[in-house]
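Complex 227.
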Amino acid sequence: MIEFDSVTKVYPDGTTAIEDISFTVEEGTTTVLVGPSGCGKTTTMRLVNRLEEPTDGAVYFDGENTRSVDEIELRRNIGYVIQEIGLFDHMTVGENIATVPELKGWDEARIDDRIDELLELMALPREFRDQYPTELSGGQRQRVGVARALAADPDVLLMDEPFGALDPITRDDLQDEFLAIQDRINTTIIFVTHSINEALKMGDKIAIFDVGEIVQYDTPHEILANP
Ligand code: ADP
Ligand code: ADP
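Predicted structure with adenosine-5'-diphosphate bound:
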């Protein structure tokens, strides 16, 4: 589904964020990129939706080099959730969720149904669709962020420390709920965290990063057996 082939990223200021990274993400699985701050996880994730371009090597999406895929088209098929979710504060929750479906030209009735479906999926009350993000708690906003990223049934969902800014109890709840809905959404997920506990809990596969490289890439079971 997604393949990194000997990818190196050097930023314009000369920082080498990742060096010669290769790994494959299988369709329908959750792959977690885990490691301390600054080791290249976010850079790796942003290479998938072309918010960054490789300096060397290539990233393939369904067998096609992402360099030759239209960026806008690529991003419509790849949902993106970040820690401090960039919800549009001047738009209601419903309008936020509708953004990508509208870009894709879905008709109003279909978008309307989809908003209700996603609010239900993320355990948010239906009334929230007419409220503004600033009226919600941090955990609720993050649920809306996930709902918005899933709105147009993306093939891939990128999640960069999605629960990182939440208090431990809310984070735990959201992890559990997200695990429970993974089968329903049937999306390939790449998940970034610095928490090995979160990685072991959420991942089908885990890529352990050390400065700029992947030092282990395996199932949680294998990682626990061969630390
Ligand atoms: P992580 O997600 O693991 O915290 P990042 O991918 O954000 O790591 O960063 C990897 C390295 O690249 C770090 O040394 C970071 O400072 C550097 N870096 C990230 N973004 C940029 C940028 N836009 N310009 C220069 N250096 C950057
Ligand atoms: P747990 O695995 O128990 O959830 P974490 O690994 O998330 O614990 O770490 C606990 C707290 O420490 C987090 O809330 C986070 O804010 C902070 N923390 C740990 N490692 C880092 C890091 N590399 N960068 C930033 N914050 C960190």
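The chain has a mean pLDDT of 93.
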